[in-house]
Design brief:
With about 230 residues, this protein is an all-beta fold. The protein has no helices and 13 strands.
């Protein structure tokens, strides 16, 4: 028999490595101003959290939850006039509250294919700042990055595709992928070089789009028989 999710509320946990990918917009961006250039490179990042599913029918569920998202970046800064270069690694933290509709297709007694789509409320609790410095002779050169959220919260679209292996007593195991794209710019990131009486700056926009590989585990739950419709005789 197949193990459907009708009248089942299922809790799960998920881990989603974020893969830098220029095809979805999670790629390097940079700028140059007054001989000072900077390049922002997205690094492998991570999202993890909890998932809740409400089974509506044998083939449709509603899914929600909360995720912590840690986006990692590396800023490479170069100033040709004085032969300077510096690198700063930093992270930008966000939380997501998605709501999606899932559609299931049974492939066998235990294997299911599913696809989903919906919206997410993305929130950014704080800005982030980091710095480093170099001394050449008697001159101190200070490099800084400051990443500021454009707004406290924004809406994003999200789509998933994956496969589940469902057991009768030990829960569900899921492997899939996710595409996530906010509406608008996520943050402005500024690089700054300061020395003597000079200040040089670069500013870029970070869009927040990403692509993940999803690993999930859902705990076994029994159907709510009170919600099950009685069969007609």
């Amino acid at each position: 028999m197949t193990y459907a999710q009708e009248n089942v509320t299922t809790f799960g946990i998920q881990v989603r490595p974020i893969v830098p990918n220029k095809f979805v917009g999670f790629e390097s961006v940079g700028g140059e101003n007054n001989g000072f250039s900077a390049q922002w490179e997205p690094r492998p990042s991570l999202s993890f959290g909890m998932v809740i599913r409400w089974g509506l029918t044998k083939s449709i569920s509603i899914e929600s939850g909360i995720n912590l998202l840690r986006r990692n970046y590396r800023v490479n800064m170069l100033e040709l006039e004085n032969g300077l270069d510096a690198t700063i690694d930093y992270s930008f933290i966000g939380y997501e509250l998605p709501v999606q509709v899932l559609f299931y297709v049974p492939l066998s007694d235990r294997w299911w294919m599913n696809g989903s789509g919906g919206l997410s409320i993305d929130t950014y609790p704080s800005n982030t700042f980091s710095n480093t410095s170099q001394r050449i002779d008697t001159v101190e050169y200070d490099f800084e990055q400051f990443t500021a959220r454009r707004r406290w919260a924004q809406i994003a679209i999200q789509a998933n595709y994956g496969f589940e292996y469902r057991t009768k007593e030990s829960g569900y195991y899921y492997l899939g992928v996710t595409f996530h794209r906010p509406f608008g710019t996520m943050a402005n990131s500024e690089s700054v070089l300061t020395y003597a009486d000079a200040i040089k700056r670069n500013v870029v926009e970070l869009n927040g789009t990403y692509f993940t590989v999803d690993l999930r585990y859902f705990f076994h739950e029994k159907a709510d028989l009170k919600k099950a419709k009685p069969k007609k005789k």
